Amino acid sequence: MKILENFPLKDITTMHLDVRCKYFAEYSTVEGLRELLDTQQYRQNRSLHIGGGSNLVFTRDFDGMLLHSRIHYISQIGTNADTVTLEVGAGVTWDDFVKYCIEHEFYGAENLSGIPGEVGASAVQNIGSYGAEVCNIINRVNCIDISTGQVCHFSNDECQYAYRDSIFKHQPAQRYIVTSVEYVLSLKPQFTLTYGPLKSLADKPGLSMRDVRETIISVRNSKLPDPSQTGSVGSFFKNPAIPSQQFAELAATYTTIPHYPAANGLVKVPAGWLIENAGLKGHCIGGAYVYPKQCLVIANNGNATPSDVVALYKHITQVVNDKFGIELHPEANII
Length: 335
Ligand code: EPU
Description:
Layout: E1 3-8, E2 20-27, H1 30-37, H2 40-43, E3 46-50, E4 56-57, E5 62-69, E6 74-79, E7 83-89, H3 94-103, H4 119-125, E8 128-129, E9 132-133, E10 138-145, E11 150-155, E12 176-186, H5 196-199, H6 209-223, E13 231-235, E14 241-242, H7 244-253, E15 260-261, E16 267-268, H8 271-277, E17 284-285, E18 288-290, E19 297-300, H9 306-324, E20 333-334
Parallel strand pairs: 2-5, 3-5, 4-20
Antiparallel strand pairs: 1-2, 6-7, 7-12, 8-9, 10-11, 10-12, 13-19, 14-16, 15-16, 17-18, 18-19
């Protein structure tokens, strides 16, 4: 077990900001995690468990301990005529898992192709894209409860999944650390092609998951920055859901505003559209800028400081609120 001190976070977070943490430690087994939870460095400091660092914005140095899982395995733990159940270590790269499913002809993860991050975070964040959400394929989430050190399990229902939300985001001091996630995939071809650019695939003879993946990766590449080239956390904001009366007033002025039905009779509008139509496309503060091809992304030109990102995020929130009377909330976890 190695605990690194004054560890730089630039290369382990996709926003690539120049910040450090007091301690950084990785583990590759549940036992290794338990040992870390027993160290002085862990007990005497605040802590945060990170995944692929693709949804985290550190606004200053982190004066505590960061933990990161290297639990890497994919096991088939059950199967029947229609489905297979896989248990996957929390440290597996999400997109490696998607590729594994496609190679083995397991259906259900392909619409989530290309999402950065790791399996553990997929279950916390309820990642979603192109008409799918990971909660549709999660069977059970296995955790360590740090208040007792014991293993515990959450069924899909117990996870209380909603849009980019789960019970794990509402626990004080990150009570549960995800160690593995169980997914149920279909053995029979089953596609979700409701999202605009996927609709045209419905008529393709012999449609395969690879076709779906390729379409999604090409849409992603055309809209989102390449994480290896440009720092960002993907969507910085959640798409807000507003009352239908407020939407009707907005739509009377902005007749082309995209919208989708949301829970409780609310109407969801894309944050990217609001930011673009508030005149903020490409707007920059220092090295942080609104990504012109998808305005809900804040990108780093290589020189952004944490305060540039915070100033831009606050500016966007203010301008969108002034123009549309809608408050944006970050999707990214701002520390
Ligand atoms: N739009 C604009 N201007 C923009 C961005 C979007 O007018 O700058 C419009 C688009 O033309 C479209 C609508 O807004 O009519 C929706 O855009 P898009 O299909 O790109 O999806 P989104 O709602 O902006 C969400 C997710 C993405 C996910 C895509 C595709 C959130 C916060 N974001 O974006 O997730 O890839 O749908 O399913 O829900 C991520 O979480 O990091 C992420 C990228």
